[in-house]
What we know:
Calcium-transporting ATPase, cytoplasmic transduction domain A, about 50% helix
Amino acid sequence: MRRSGNTLEPAGTTGLTEAEAAARLRIEGPNELPTAAVRRWYRVVWDVVREPMFGLLLGAGAVYLVLGDLEEALILLGFATLSVSIAAVQESRSERVLEALRDLSSPRALVIRDGRERRIPGREVVRGDLIHIAEGDRVPADATLLSGTNVLVDESLLTGESVPVRKTVAAGGAAVAAVPGGDDLPFVFSGTLVVGGTGKAIVSATGGRSEIGKIGTALRDIEASVPRLRQQTHRLVAIFAAVGTALSIAAVILYGLLRGSWLDALLGGIALGMSMLPEEIPLVLTVFMVMGAWRISRASVLTRKATAIETLGAATVLCTDKTGTLTLNRMSIAHLETLHERWRAPSPDASPPGGFEGLIQTGSLASAREAFDPMDRAFHEAAERVGLPESRSEPVPVRAYALNSDLLAMTNVWRSPDGRHVAAAKGAPEAIFDLCRLDEPTVAGLRARVDAIAADGMRVLGVARASVPDGDLPPSAREFPFAFVGLVGFADPLRPEVPNAVRECRSAGIRVVMITGDHPATADAIARAAGIEPGTILTGDDLQRWDAAALAERVHATTVFARIRPEQKLRIVSALKANGEVVAMTGDGVNDAPALKAADIGIAMGSRGTDVAREASSIVLLNDDFGSIVATIRLGRRIYDNLRKAMGYILAVHVPIAGLAILPLVAGWPLVLTPILIAFLEMVIDPVCSVVLEAEPEEKDVMARPPRPPDERLLSSRLIAWSLVQGTLAFAATAAVFLLGIREHMPENEVRALGFVALVTTNIGLIFANRSFGASLITAFTRRNRALWWSLGTTTLLIGAVLTWPPLRALARLGPLHGDDLLACLVAGLLLLIVLEAFKRALGARLKH
């Protein structure tokens, strides 16, 4: 290993082979801490057993045992077991989805194996791996630094000290304890953040053997605050449970006093309690959030926080960067200009003519040797095309001066064969003009040229060069005697899907705001090409001059911010939120994290984003594509719409069930709904509201209506009123059929069968009515949803079996029905659907709020 200034290079290594890494992964296990997220089967069973519905089923079974009716008791026990099984299967499916999402969200690591760099999930890193770390990365495992340039690491997770510590490279000599904290040590630790520099390190410990593994897994015990949706649904279930309990007790007392049969009264009270309890609501919320995250992941977007799904439909402003999000992030040099010559590339692969070798070579020297930045790669590719790789390989790297908020330029220092130091700088033209100390007339002329290049939508960088004798290097790049070399324009084509996506956002009432570090003219050109009407363009210098109140007033109508530094994004987000906007913000760097966390919806870049940005975000774009953001907003609105449909259906369907449980108690007629029949109905209701309605396609106007108010309740007063209207009409239709049977003096078991089938058919009518907020009867039957038809087919087969197979019919205490009876039930369901669709047509768009 050799030392050169602040940069040290290893003698060279190819890292582990894939076979060695696979063997160590097999023996030592994945690089991850134990997680408490996976619930074991017995915990799932216990959680289900604690649910009130399970207790009611067991209570009814106990009553039947007291009555000596073993068959009824066994059936209810079977339903209870089925409830546990369904919950366990659903939990298992949800856990598999969440496990897949956890794999996607695992921090990525850049390792060298078989001599090639590979980006792999952090959990696959093994002891002995050679890893590359860079600013913004979270260190994937404990490791020893072999080479590095100005490496600074935030180890506050382990030490509590917020000041980053400086790292040096491993060298021979006395052994040093590998403990976090303290400057000039060669050790980096799992979970810590690289806040400056780049380097290579060899992994010494993974998973539970790392320092963070030794001190415990306290992070997994932190309980997140309960999301707003879950709070609302828990409150709703508690209200229904309290009302249902009160009515059940009253029904038991009334039935016992009037009829004298207290055991029958208890059964009737249990049936009423089961009918009133909307225990499907917590299940629905869980299924919708998990399946919503899965659906969004299919659009190459990872949901890190479930609350983001809830918030997506309320976004009013979408703040996006330019490079790699609106554009393809495939930079090529399209314009070269010195003080005396200029050249415009006729095609992306065109080679510059002679006379520009010095400009290209200096830009290449000013770029990172292992290029990840598209502009760095463009410089290296141009150098290769003009035959400069040999000249670039001669100097020896000495030091790098990183870009910072005070100087928007980076400088690399090299030792040339003649022993002198060569400093190459590239960055914002204004910064390069400052470094070169150019006079005002020259700067004015160059600024005009920069504006002209930027007006064509190109990113413009200035390039400068300095040569000094060997010796101590200055602490700041400003102290070099730089000479101006030239300007370079980079072309980055707009993504083809962006204009349509921007139009879709506009139609959805979402204002797209572009925030970029580019020149205002470049930002203006790209914004116009994307369909973003820029109007007044604000710059980072403008933001510096204004206080929070002045900025909040000006951002109201601004859609383009140029020359913005990462730390200024937080001010923009805060100003927008001060105006009452619901802000979605994209970002990828360490300095973007505060803005991502402050935004209502933080959106991190998956492929080029840093770990700290991803951890501060709500969702992660796995492909860095602006179109994916819009697709996510569309999916978020669909999920929220369908969740409201499911909640409305749950409230509506419990009204006729409760009504049919109360009516016979009050009127002195035979009981229609026994605990067994209600349990059967729950087997129908649960999959309909949790699976069928979740799978409903989006509304036609999902992206043609304004964002919903951020404080809107999931169950608004209008939706509750609409659900009660639906439920009341369904009860009226069911009661009408039931009363028809009473009037015809049908036997008790046949009346019960008639009322039960009528309840099922009106339930089906409610399903179709709640498929859409629209008012088309045809649409109710033609909208595609395979889960719906599977559910209805299964329900029809079960009803047919219960009505036609004598043993089942006897267990359910139902009698046979004739063709006219079934027709009356079907007519009741169809008439209910027609009436509800007519109501929807009259109410119009008010149901959507």
